[in-house]
């Protein structure tokens, strides 16, 4: 097998229902890139720590928004291993540098990361110190509250998820995307405006509150949700992806995610009318990402709910199950 296959993998459409073609889910191996013929998304089975792989995916393009969700150096369900901390930070520095290289002069970089309370909070503080020497500026430190977590009767339950927000130059920030669905209830915070004492409801631009940098309004993905991809243990909610994407980009912009996993960034980019270039080194995740996009286009569903998709490193569902049943439009 060649180190990299220097081509984009075409979408083959060869199955017919009533003389209408339906998409075939691409298969992946290391070096393969699939390019979506409809909206131009790209999914690559590539290694983010290799500069040549990132260049192959990007093809000299720049992005105004990168959303990265790397492994947290914590073993989860025997799927994500852990490295010696020095080795993990060295690996992280490679993919961070490769990401910064493809950022536009005015751009945003979001990085999900964890802190292991059982091991001196690694790797979060070590990663943040490493980032101090990079040509990006920290803009905020966001915490998303999970509904479930791990804990003990002798400690506070661990339910926080950290999100680091860095910027380069002067990127876009659409503040409307930050507003939640939580109504404002508390009056007060009086302030004099043009000689008149006003309270916060009078000055407000919305009847709902802003998310701020503590997000407690986003439901953690679980098996009863349509967007669930069972077997993808690091899946992020579409709602969190939407908040980031719509706050830090505009329609038509290019978004990147180099740890694609369940495809949440890819699918939300489609929903938010942007374009996504994404990758994962695991060919099964690459197939799941492409399948989830095609499944949504075919059925309108954002995931597979209770259906078991991935287990023990293998995709359990066949391609027909991944695509979903044909809709009435397919049968016309």
Keywords, separated by commas or semicolons:
single chain; alpha/beta; about 325 residues; ten-stranded mixed β-sheet; Rossmann fold
In brief:
The protein has 332 residues and is of the alpha/beta class. The protein has 9 helices and 18 strands. Helix 2 (85-101) packs across helix 3 (124-131), helix 5 (238-247) packs across helix 6 and helix 6 (264-271) packs parallel to helix 7.
Residues in β-strands, percent? 25-35%
CATH homologous superfamily identity: Vaccinia Virus protein VP39
Count the E strands: 18
The whole-number mean of residue pLDDT values reads 89
N-end to C-end Cα span: 43 Å
Quickly give the structural class.
alpha/beta
Order of helices and strands: EEEEEHEHEHEEEEEHEEHEHEHEEHH
What's the CATH class label? Alpha Beta
Spatial ordering of strands, largest sheet: 1-4-5-16-15-6-7-9-8-14
Describe this structure in words.
By secondary structure, the chain is of the alpha/beta class. The protein has a single domain (8-177, 212-331), classed as 3-Layer(aba) Sandwich (Rossmann fold). 24% of the residues lie in helices and 28% in strands. The chain contains nine helices and 18 strands. The protein has helices spanning 51-58, 85-101, 124-131, 200-203, 238-247, 264-271, 283-299, 319-323, 328-331, and strands at 8-9, 15-17, 20-22, 33-35, 42-45, 63-68, 103-113, 137-152, 155-168, 179-183, 191-193, 196-198, 208-210, 214-215, 254-257, 275-280, 310-311, 314-315. The strands form five sheets. A ten-stranded mixed beta sheet has the order 1-4-5-16-15-6-7-9-8-14. The protein has a two-stranded antiparallel sheet with strand order 2-3. Strands 10-13 form a two-stranded antiparallel ribbon. Helix 2 links the parallel strand 6 (63-68) and strand 7. The longest helix is centred in the N-terminal third of the chain and has 17 residues, at 85-101. The radius of gyration is 21 Å and the shape is globular. The N and C termini lie far apart (43 Å). Residues 1-19 have low confidence and may be disordered.
